[in-house]
Design brief:
The chain crosses the membrane at residues 23-48, 57-76, 96-118, 139-162, 191-215, 236-255, 267-289. Keywords: Cell membrane, Disulfide bond, G-protein coupled receptor, Glycoprotein, Membrane, Olfaction, Receptor, Sensory transduction, Transducer, Transmembrane, Transmembrane helix. One of its GO terms (molecular function) is G protein-coupled receptor activity. The chain has 310 residues and is mainly alpha-helical. It has one domain: Rhodopsin 7-helix transmembrane proteins (Rhopdopsin 7-helix transmembrane proteins, Up-down Bundle), CATH 1.20.1070. It contains 10 helices and 4 strands, in the order ββααβαααβααααα. It has helices spanning 18-49, 56-83, 92-125, 130-133, 136-162, 189-222, 226-259, 265-275, 278-290, 292-308, and strands spanning 3-4, 7-12, 89-91, 170-171. Strands 1, 2, 3 and 4 form a 4-stranded mixed beta sheet that branches. A hairpin with a 2-residue loop joins β1 (3-4) and β2.
Amino acid sequence: MEENLNVTYLTLDGHVEVSKYRYLYFMTFLLVYVLILCSNCTVVYLIWKKTDLHEPMYVFIAALLLNSVLLSTNIYPKLLLDFLSDTQVISHQACLLQYSLIYLLGSSEFLLLAAMAYDRYVSICKPLHYQSIMRRTTVCVFLAAAWLLPACQQAGLSILSAQQKLCSFTLKFIFCNNSIYKLFCVTSRAITVFGVFIMSNTVVGPVIFIVFTYTRILLICYHSSADVRRKAAHTCLPHLLVLSNYFCLFMYEVITVRLDYDFPKAARLIMSLQVVLYNPLFNPFIYGLKMKEIRKHLKMFLCLDVTKHS
């Protein structure tokens, strides 16, 4: 810990041999970050630019990819600076902000996936009522709720956390997550209860809703034509793939921090990175390659770009 003008600094002790491999780490993660920005922003741009993609399903995909960009930007720039620094530290206030944004955006991802599941349910199971149910107003309400609900809840949790006295100043991770609770002198019952409440309505609740929704879709498709089953598989499989991957990584990160498992530093580093690596990096490829309309516009966009430079 360092004290300067009443600023408390925390040490990020999750790095592995950063002094030896700092430039390799820096170039690798810089490349990953640029790839995340370019791939996600390209799909978001196509959805924004092409009017035939202005449908609820594609709007939710764009919101999900934008959410991934924000999550990555919350972590990667600081990570890149740490690779080039002799000491990996962060102020207490900045740490609280980073950890709050991680869980805010993580919760938003589950809520956006729940909105996408509902959209697919209405599209496949109630096609005649789709236009009347999934209106622009409905989509805007879902999007606002996906970001504002976690933001309000996480703001309250952050205020409670900021009021806690610290007795330790070293985090075992490379970025700030809920391991910050381990630094408190006294475990706060209010923070624990509020944290469980937030997780129940922004993670567990949406996941249960998504599983229920896709179960209903599968049951209905089982008794439908081959064309309906093919449509359901084509649109639902990417969502289920993203959900299962993100839920497993998210719950791993939360549970291991809370139970304070004594993992080797290298293993902890790898698992921590997967939380902020897999979905931001692979989501645009999953949706860009699996969704027919996005793939079509992406091919046209890339071909046009090549033609302009030839």
